[in-house]
Amino acid sequence: MARNHRRKAKQVGLPPGTLVHVGEKKAEQVRITVIDYDAAAIQRKTVSQTKQCLPFKETATVTWINIDGLHDVKVVEDIGRLFDLHPLILEDILHTNQRPKIENHERHLFVVMRMIRFDDETGRILSEQFSMVLGEHYLITFQECVGDVFEPIRQRLGDPQSRLRKNGPDYLLYRLMDSLVDHYFVVLEKVGDRIEALQEEVARDPAEGTLQNIHRMRREMISFRRAVWPVRDLISSLQRQETPLLSEAYQVFFNDLYDHIVRVVDTTESYREMISGMLDLYMSSISNKMNAVMKVLTIIATIFIPLTFIAGVYGMNFDTMPELHWRWGYATIWGIMGAVFIAMLFYFKRKKWL
Amino acid sequence: MARNHRRKAKQVGLPPGTLVHVGEKKAEQVRITVIDYDAAAIQRKTVSQTKQCLPFKETATVTWINIDGLHDVKVVEDIGRLFDLHPLILEDILHTNQRPKIENHERHLFVVMRMIRFDDETGRILSEQFSMVLGEHYLITFQECVGDVFEPIRQRLGDPQSRLRKNGPDYLLYRLMDSLVDHYFVVLEKVGDRIEALQEEVARDPAEGTLQNIHRMRREMISFRRAVWPVRDLISSLQRQETPLLSEAYQVFFNDLYDHIVRVVDTTESYREMISGMLDLYMSSISNKMNAVMKVLTIIATIFIPLTFIAGVYGMNFDTMPELHWRWGYATIWGIMGAVFIAMLFYFKRKKWL
Amino acid sequence: MARNHRRKAKQVGLPPGTLVHVGEKKAEQVRITVIDYDAAAIQRKTVSQTKQCLPFKETATVTWINIDGLHDVKVVEDIGRLFDLHPLILEDILHTNQRPKIENHERHLFVVMRMIRFDDETGRILSEQFSMVLGEHYLITFQECVGDVFEPIRQRLGDPQSRLRKNGPDYLLYRLMDSLVDHYFVVLEKVGDRIEALQEEVARDPAEGTLQNIHRMRREMISFRRAVWPVRDLISSLQRQETPLLSEAYQVFFNDLYDHIVRVVDTTESYREMISGMLDLYMSSISNKMNAVMKVLTIIATIFIPLTFIAGVYGMNFDTMPELHWRWGYATIWGIMGAVFIAMLFYFKRKKWL
Amino acid sequence: MARNHRRKAKQVGLPPGTLVHVGEKKAEQVRITVIDYDAAAIQRKTVSQTKQCLPFKETATVTWINIDGLHDVKVVEDIGRLFDLHPLILEDILHTNQRPKIENHERHLFVVMRMIRFDDETGRILSEQFSMVLGEHYLITFQECVGDVFEPIRQRLGDPQSRLRKNGPDYLLYRLMDSLVDHYFVVLEKVGDRIEALQEEVARDPAEGTLQNIHRMRREMISFRRAVWPVRDLISSLQRQETPLLSEAYQVFFNDLYDHIVRVVDTTESYREMISGMLDLYMSSISNKMNAVMKVLTIIATIFIPLTFIAGVYGMNFDTMPELHWRWGYATIWGIMGAVFIAMLFYFKRKKWL
Amino acid sequence: MARNHRRKAKQVGLPPGTLVHVGEKKAEQVRITVIDYDAAAIQRKTVSQTKQCLPFKETATVTWINIDGLHDVKVVEDIGRLFDLHPLILEDILHTNQRPKIENHERHLFVVMRMIRFDDETGRILSEQFSMVLGEHYLITFQECVGDVFEPIRQRLGDPQSRLRKNGPDYLLYRLMDSLVDHYFVVLEKVGDRIEALQEEVARDPAEGTLQNIHRMRREMISFRRAVWPVRDLISSLQRQETPLLSEAYQVFFNDLYDHIVRVVDTTESYREMISGMLDLYMSSISNKMNAVMKVLTIIATIFIPLTFIAGVYGMNFDTMPELHWRWGYATIWGIMGAVFIAMLFYFKRKKWL
Questions:
Q1: What is the sign, positive or negative, of the torsion defined by CA atoms of E36, E41, E47, E52?
Q2: Closest CA in chain B for residue C291
Q3: Which residues make up the CATH 1.20.58.340 domain(s) of chain B?
């Protein structure tokens, strides 16, 4: 997360709207995919030059232009010029550390969210910026790398009966946002599994690695929360946008989306609380263990130190030590030591240390 | 609680309104019960087919249709079609992890709450989703499993003098919500008992299990709070709904209900504070105990280690050790050891360790 | 406090407005006292039957009817019927675990607060529900047990010159509320004394009981806060009530009352902070003490364990141990031990442990 | 601070507006000082009787009447009658534990703040109530004891060119409030110095007194905060008062004052955070120290306990112990003990305890 | 940070608007730089006398007057008189401990922010006050010392094609503010690096210096937060200012700036959380280490103390100790000691201490 603001420094002092890519280069090559459809027909192609997108701009059909990879500033700049996007939109697309937000630029609605996925192999949460520009007949989306969570939507588009095919780009926007939010649940589910596993571990037998894991999870939740928390305001503000680009008819869907994101935020907060509870539990466990260690030490030392003292006394070499010459001296001393031993045991029993 | 969002993942990418049951299958078979009444008469029956509900739809009498068990998507779908419910209502009914909420769909008012009960046998809090759809002449309710908290209401319905019989489905809705909230008090009462018991335990003699119990209770309160907290907004929003489905006359009852839920939330917060106080107390107790253990160890060791040293000295085998040959050497050494012993005791006394 | 919601469970499922007493039976017998006055005359009597109150209902004189003891539901029901109170008012009066609140029922203004007193004998905070119903010419008050904080007001009523005698029941209501809030200060004063005493104790010489006391006080403050916090909103809302029952002229008094309750809340918060500061201090004290104990142990053990080792070496029985036969062997060994001893002392001095 | 609410108890039950002094008697004798001025002339005198103030009441010149000492209720009462102050104003003046506040009584504006000074000798924060009543041509101020922070203002009044002389009592009110707030900065400066000194102490070498000092400072900041926090609202509300007593022209000055108090509040919050950070640091230091102590003990004990055991073995008196009679037995045993010693050192080195 | 309010004390009691420099003298000599430009031409000069600025006041070209160094009150006073600034503006410029804020003085817009830089050499955060006064054709800026973050802007001004040259002083104001906020990101980046390094250190091998570093960073973040937090409100309020000095056209830029500062605040909060997480982790590490130390001590002591006791017993000098004369006595005793040793190891193994 500490990397979220990186490279910003590089462009300090440049005028606003200067296009510089801020973020890691995540994709090898920029890939532009165009899907153009209406209720009757659908056409998909991968174009190699940005100007190939131009024909779709003014047609009545819905056009979804998806750009994978942002390191080639030229491509974004071209798209911007072709579709007449505001320079600040382009800047925000390229600085891949935006806070989720919505901006209403009259002819365009600009939405930034984060696409969050769980990498099962490394057990890490992957997060990339996903920017959407809604125009009258088109939706342009920008992702940092190839591979996304929208495969089911692409399949549904193939079905002429699907609601997607019968509606405009604003409905497509909703469906993409819905997919993103749905994946937040998927990530939370994985996180929930890990929390449960860790809780087991803490309660049963906490290792030192456990602590590191809890803290890593805690940091990941801080970062996850930063990505989802603003989405609530985003959707709520989107519902109130006065723009012809968004059909009133979808209000109910956005209400539903709002409910989902509220639930995501709620769950995130609960997880944060549970993680912090785990830390308390861990600390208590450590204290309990230390206490147990101390008790063992104390019992052993408290029993044997006095006994050793007694033995030491009768190991002295004074000329005159009458006890040494008593007939039952040795036996008596064993008796005394036994008595001390039993008294100690009794004492610990009463103290409930045994 | 970590399970609250489960299986959501399964339906990621499906279009909104696609009906898939999300949650555990809790009931063996779906059971549909219809109670149809007005001031004059009452009729109860268990129907086996959803279409048997249709005759009750438009009659002037009040009809309460209750569905137990949600795993059979078909049934919910049929009910939805018969009563013309919005697809998103049906989706929310089937995804049994909703946040309590209210939705105004013009011809229907949709309310989701959680029915929370305390299982005396396992000492666990049971929670299931309870969805209510209020129409002009009917109220349709959906629960996840057979068995609920409404038996007293069903009995009151049998009494022709009861206010229930004289009022519409909106009053029935109020009474069901009131029953749900009343049961929150019952659960809190049980939780209160357990908190008191734990407090006793912590103050008197905390075992290691105590800590686990406090933490489990803490997690349960996090989850309980998530279920009741949104109900406050729900009721407050319900009071402001502009809908002909709700009679103005019941405003005062909903005010009362609002008071109750505020009290539930208040008590929940207090319990959370008390639980967190208990954790502090537990930690302090552990520290105190460790301190006591340390003192015992220190007293014993500090007294006997010097004495053992003295004994060790006169156990040495040097040729020339004049003390060994003194007449009162042995007695003197006992005297010295006694003096050390008493000095130590005096020191500990002054330090208030004894 | 955990008892606040008790017995609610008993009446779960009953229709709203059903009258059941929820709370402990605190008084032996219900006592009804009537004080009827105007500027000219005053009349006090204790009535045995509720219907004896009826003559005072419509007279132009101010009537204060006070009921001590709520276990006899019949009495409350009768009063309710005589004065035409809303069933929900009666229900709230009987459920003695209300959150402080105000309700405007057109012809009646219903105010619930808690009467809080400090029992000097047991050192405990006593709290009971005090309900007030303001009508046009009368004020009816309900308390859980005999004995209250209004004796000075009753005395003032005897003085024909007092402002009480010249004003209506709304002024009486204000004076009763003012008395209740004044007693919150009295309780806070006692709590303040105890906090100071505990602070002394913690700083000087914390015993194990100290911790229990701090935690008990903490719980009492949680409960006290629940009783006073809502009163702020109550008074603020009372100032905005649009009702002919309250004279505009008393606005300034209610402003004053509002100031008082804000101060009560402020002080409560400060006390909570101070109590939580005391817990930190206590924990630090325990740690400091443990540290001191450890140092003593370490100093003694670290000095004598090596010395005992040396003595042990020369207690060995090897045939060939030349040192044993040196002339100054014994003296030398004492010298070495003395040197070790002094080196250790020097080391501890430098470490500032001595 | 716990004393803030004292003696309130004494007047419980009295009617509002009854004048009783609540607070410590801080001054020997009440002193009344009158400064009467306009642009042309200035007149100062100390009056002995309250009625001597009357002549100044209606004159067009600005009159500042300052009363030092509140224990003589009679004086305040007289002033109240002479200037026609509302009884509740007088009550608040005498109860010297008010929360800072402003009250608009049509013909008077009543402002209560606290005058806070730092006593360099005792190192304690002194706080007294300062009440101001603004009338059309006069400002009456009440302090608990002789001596205040307004000397510079009195000097400025001597200068006919000063803005004070050219403006009305509302400007004087502003200047007094400004002086009070300026002194909050002075106190914060002293507190800041002490925080820095304590931070040094905690980081370098915390003594037990350190902890007490941190906690005392913490309590003082709680109390300081209670005195300044409400002033923010006070000034903000003062800016919105609709009263002819305050000239619109001073709006910009009050804005400035608002900025100052916001900064005071900000700094107070930062100090609170820093103090709480210091407590954490202190606790960590204690833990670190305990750890260091433990290490020393463990190193010494772990090295010498096994060695002592070895020496003990060869101090046994068995008839048959072949090693005792070996030629190099004694030397060998020294070799073994040396090896153990070195192995232990090596082990601690690897564990980084040395 | 504790120094933020220093020297304020010196001017306590002076009338508002009295000009006294409050802060450290940071620059040797006051330097006044004037840049006067329009789309056609640009002129830069360093003036030695304030009155040389006057000619630029009313020209239609944009004039940026920058003053480095504030200790010479005379200069600021002169500028104030020449440009007719309100005395309170001048006072705030000289008191270099202002909270970031905006003030609308009709003919001038006054903005105070803090310029924050990271000193790579000392690893410390440097902070100075930066004041801006926007007039109709000019922008006057005041810094505490020579050297700032605006070099790139000065370079852009050299380019006739740059947007700066084509716009008014309000756009220049925006660009300066943008540069300041951009530098907050730079500082956060450095802080982020240090947090990561510290996190590594804490997880791997915390030294005592680590704790000091974490706490220093924590204090620096408290202070950083105080500098940036109010900027959010400042910009938000700036967007709502009704002033002809700010062109409506730049609204979109200020929206962008607002987004940036929200991100700065967000990141600051996250860092604070991460730092506090690090403290928890540090404390847990210390506890873990102490636990490890205790275990080593306990294992060694618990094994050897009983063995030493056994050896001590057979070192006693009683006349009658049959075991000493047994043939296999010595061997047997070794056997017993071996058995105790192994039993102990087994016990620790089971306890998972080994």
A1: negative
A2: B291
A3: 289-350
